[in-house]
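Figure caption, in words: inputs first, then the predicted bound structure.
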Amino acid sequence: MKIAILGYGVVGSGAYEVAQAAHNIEVKRVLYKRPIDELGDIVTTEYEDILKDEEIELVAECIGGLHPAYEYVSAALKSGKHVVTPNKNLVAAYWDELHDLAREHGAEFRYTASAGGGIPWLFNLQRQSRSDDILSISGIVNGTCNYILDTMHNEPVDFAEILAKAQELGYAEKDPTADIGGFDTQRKCVISANLAFGTSISEEDVPVFGIQNITAGDIKYFNEHGYTCKLLMNAGQTETGAYAYVEPTLVSRGALESSVPANNNLISLTGNHIGTLSFYGQGAGKYPTGTSVIQDVLDIENGWKFSDKSEKNDVSVDNRLEAHRYYIRENGSCKITGPLSVTEAHRLASESSDEHFFMAGIRE
Ligand SMILES: NC(=O)C1=CN([C@@H]2O[C@H](COP(=O)(O)OP(=O)(O)OC[C@H]3O[C@@H](n4cnc5c(N)ncnc54)[C@H](OP(=O)(O)O)[C@@H]3O)[C@@H](O)[C@H]2O)C=CC1
Ligand SMILES: N[C@@H](CC=O)C(=O)O
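Bound structure (LTNE7NMQ present):
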């Protein structure tokens, strides 16, 4: 299969290199803003060169962001080309539209790398959902935040310094606010929940609280009380719809999540029949993510199709009945609350006048 890769940054260059070792794939074109010496004349600055090339059956969009990624991906699907992307911004924001376009034009639209980086999480979630009722999903899905929190738990480091290191290692988003503010995790939660529950919730449905205000003092308190702090996504079915939220969470030292080091992710699903399945591995970085992109390409090349259900479950998110205790630090003093609903805790966070406010849910 002849393919084109759009963008040649961390993931695009990783995908290109991994593709060299994959049988049956030829990278015919790479779209980039300027020449790339080692790639020679396969590089183009004109997307039309790719779109109009009938030999190119698949476009791997690795530019990131919403525009022009959206325009490029839509045009590829409309012309019947398959699309693979690690771009969670795009997938979460245009969920219905891009799936509809793919279905209308008989193209495959796959985005395994958009949540879990190198882990075949979405692939297996979708696979499991064919024969099971997925009751809940949860986990660590941001490599940058896990790298920061893991390092802070183990050594006295400055937050800004360790974030800069995560950027240097290629884990962070172009604007790392997306990582530390929890928005990247929120998008991955949207994508995972939509696949799990066959629905189309959006980013606005998922309240988010990030880790940008965590301090060495908070971590010291957690270490002394036997807790590890992780940024988790959570979503599940309820009798009336679903809950879904993202927040720093204190887990006990014995919990699986507690021992997840560096840029790794740990993501779990609980199905009615299968019980709980957990997936672990590198959630960010050039080769893990590049590999995941090329695995999707190979699945399409092999003719593997997931039946994309066109009928949707209309699920509404309500976090009012989802309650647990919280660690809250406000205006310099910290406390452990009694059970608070997620709705109430996130309201407190958004209404606090303390710009350094921090909270973390406590998993019992
Ligand atoms: N890094 C990671 O570990 C992971 C990233 N992702 C996702 O993968 C996507 C790519 O991320 P990443 O590779 O890290 O980002 P990078 O910024 O490293 O790469 C993006 C590349 O696209 C190029 N580019 C931007 N706009 C255009 C354009 N209009 N035409 C041609 N090239 C363009 C950029 O060029 P220039 O540098 O010159 O601006 C850059 O080379 C994002 O959606 C990200 O969220 C998903 C999982 C993991
Ligand atoms: N910035 C993201 C990259 C992968 O999705 C992360 O740190 O997980």
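The mean pLDDT is 96.
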